[in-house]
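Narrative summary of target 7.
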Amino acid sequence: MIPRRISRMVMVKDLQLGGGAPVRLQSMCNTDTRDSQTTLAQIQALAASGCELVRVAVKNHDTLPHLKKIIDASPLPVIADIHFDYTLALGSIEAGVAKLRINPGNIGSNRKLREVARAALDSGVPIRVGANSGSLEKELLSRYGPSARALAESALRNASLLENEGLNNLVLSMKGSDVRTTVEACRIVAASCDYPLHLGVTEAGPAEISAIRSSIALGALLLEGIGDTIRISVTGGVIEEMSIAKEILRCTGLRRDLGPTIISCPTCGRTEVDLLPLVRMVQRITSHITKPLKIAVMGCPVNGIGEARDADLGIAAAPSSSIVFALGKVLCRIPNENLEEEFGKIVRQFVSEE
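Modeled conformation, tokenized:
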């Protein structure tokens, strides 16, 4: 196991962040929060895909009555995302949010920040101080430029202001669209305090690009033991965020309750079947499983079994029938036309016996 940075515990309703809790999965709705029905439908879909915390945008005061409806019906703790108007933070606390996210670069004066801190303290609502490279304070930009140090200083400075009001129920995040800047800012803050850290790369692009940027940045930090919750930024569908996030946590070994790890060979001249549909079939069969299995889908029976001998279960594909194996030992050979049904049975039996 990776030795993790020791962070303090922050409770978001009944969900623990930091303090040795699993790295939590979160996302943000891309719906208009004033459309509570559509927003709740998206939250339900996120919950079904493994999301544990959800953030919604609070753009104006018209949003607040709808925010309360969402909070009351949501299966997940709801975080209010606040920019520019500190009174929206106060209204969100009154509506019953589980957590606030404020941007110190645009929330306003220190007086306004202190007022939010006092209301959060009175209500037991934690705050994420979310420093963003696109909205840093002018004084920090003048001193450091758009750098990791500026991001880190923004988060730490504003956390200190909240601490001075007696609020220690904080989570910090330092996000940029540049991978190196984001990683270095998180390292600086991780060495400077014990608050739980929320990791993410902002404006990371569509899924195929975000998956790479996010995996590099978050993977580097998580493998160093840094990070208590993650959000993958994707231009497009929020469910894609969850798929990427879960795979990052599976690959780093930080969550063993997110379902099987599926490995598959890149194929070569020995491959005599179209392997990608077979991989998709295995993904369908195992999509409901939360146990930490390793399942291999290999393109030929010549090297496949030996190369994937550490897999709990595997398929070595061939043109008419494929070999099913477990931990390097052959279990059976199944005609390809029956493979989905029969392999599904084997997987279900394996899971039930675990």
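The chain has two domains: 10-251, 261-353.
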